[in-house]
Write the structure tokens for this entry.
Amino acid sequence: MRLEGKVALITGAAGGIGHAVAGLFATEGAIVIAADIKLPQKPYAGDVETIMLDVTREEQWASAVAAIVRKHGRLDVLINNAGIIAYEPLDKLEMKDWQKMIAVDQTGVFLGMREAVRVMRKQQAGAIVNISSIWGSAAVPGAHSYHAAKGAVRNMSKNAAMTYAGEGIRVNSVHPGFIHTPLTDAQNPDLNRIVIDTTPMKRGGQPIEIAYGCLFLASDEASFVTGAELNIDGGYLAQ
Ligand code: NAP
């Protein structure tokens, strides 16, 4: 039981990576609160509480975290996983689409970290894992707003890690490569094939392979790890 008794909030946990993280954390002894804008699409691997939380909404974050602390007394782990993707290049990117991306993939992480850190500072303990992407560290053509948001998440994680390192709060980012999820299943198969073909392992990852990285970073096994980037990408960023 690598997360025995820890209270963990995971966003975007109705499907894909967040769903795998929620199930794995529950089987490792955590009290798991799985948040999303929709209901889970299949059962979790363990006991999980579900709540509705749109990560772009400041007031929903405040009430969700307050309710967790009222019910469970603390918040030990936050996994900022909720996200969307878009592929418009810079010259075709409309303001409304830019704003939507930044709202979900960047502001959602800001709001989540801020709310969690306020609780974790009182506890002088906590672990935050922000899901960035290989596109938070390296570029491909197009997807301008996604690169912007995921790059910001990488640096926001390091900034929060530095700011709260002396208060028992660890903040790290995870950078998945291509992972088979509802998000990538809905994409153009030709595009998916290009990313898989340029991955040294020549395959996409499974959500559980990201969840195991999150498990390490959320657990006390990572007690000396903060401000780190964990690439789980079949070797993509090593090229
Ligand atoms: P997914 O299957 O689409 O799951 C993400 C979940 O977040 C969905 O249930 C989604 O709902 C939800 N969501 C969207 N907007 C939200 C909001 N405002 N508030 C709360 N929840 C919201 O995606 P995934 O592939 O598991 O991705 C999870 C994270 O990993 C994302 O941050 C993504 O950028 C990152 N990532 C994924 C890959 C990959 O290859 N899959 C690679 C690198 C990074 P809807 O379905 O209604 O949008």
The chain has a mean pLDDT of 98. The longest strand covers residues 169-176. The longest helix spans residues 95-123. The pocket of NAP is lined by residues 11-12, 14-18, 36-38, 53-56, 81-85, 104, 131, 133, 176, 178-179, 181-184 (CB under 6 Å).
